[in-house]
């Protein structure tokens, strides 16, 4: 397991927790936004898929209300400007 992907999962999990939404609903929304299946989202969250492409992360970021740069670990800033 690569450290970058472990950190990605941590950032995703924290952002998911902060939404206050049910995990199942978030996984579904993340999958739809990224153009993948909920099963694939769960594989990413279990760190079975190493560093998904930016296009998928961008979809996740939109659903979670965080920046793509935050998910990529390029910034400490978590939340997008409204």
What would you say this structure looks like, in words?
The protein has 82 residues and is mainly alpha-helical. It has a single domain (3-72), classed as lambda repressor-like DNA-binding domains (434 Repressor (Amino-terminal Domain), Orthogonal Bundle). It contains five helices and no strands. Helix 2 crosses helix 3 and helix 2 crosses helix 4. The termini are far apart. The mean pLDDT is 90.
The CATH architecture classification is: Orthogonal Bundle
In the CATH hierarchy, the third-tier topology is known as 434 Repressor (Amino-terminal Domain)
Mean pLDDT: 90
DSSP summary, beta strand count: 0
CATH class: Mainly Alpha
Structural class: mainly alpha
Shape: globular
Name the helicity range: 55-70%
Q: What is the CATH homology-level superfamily? A: lambda repressor-like DNA-binding domains
Give the total of domains. 1
Spatial extent as radius of gyration: 11 Å
Distance between the termini: 35 Å
**Tally of alpha and pi helices:** 5
Main β-sheet: number of strands, strand sense, barrel status?
none
Low-confidence parts lasting 5 or more residues at pLDDT below 50?
none
Task: Provide the succession of SSEs.
Answer: HHHHH
């Amino acid at each position: 397991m690569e450290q970058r992907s472990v950190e990605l999962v941590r950032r995703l999990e924290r952002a998911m927790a902060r939404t206050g939404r049910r995990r199942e609903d978030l996984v579904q929304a993340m999958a739809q936004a990224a153009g993948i299946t909920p099963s694939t989202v769960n594989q990413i969250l279990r760190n079975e898929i190493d560093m998904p492409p930016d296009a998928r992360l961008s979809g996740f970021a939109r659903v979670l209300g965080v920046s793509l740069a935050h998910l990529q670990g390029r910034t400490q800033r978590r939340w997008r400007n409204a």
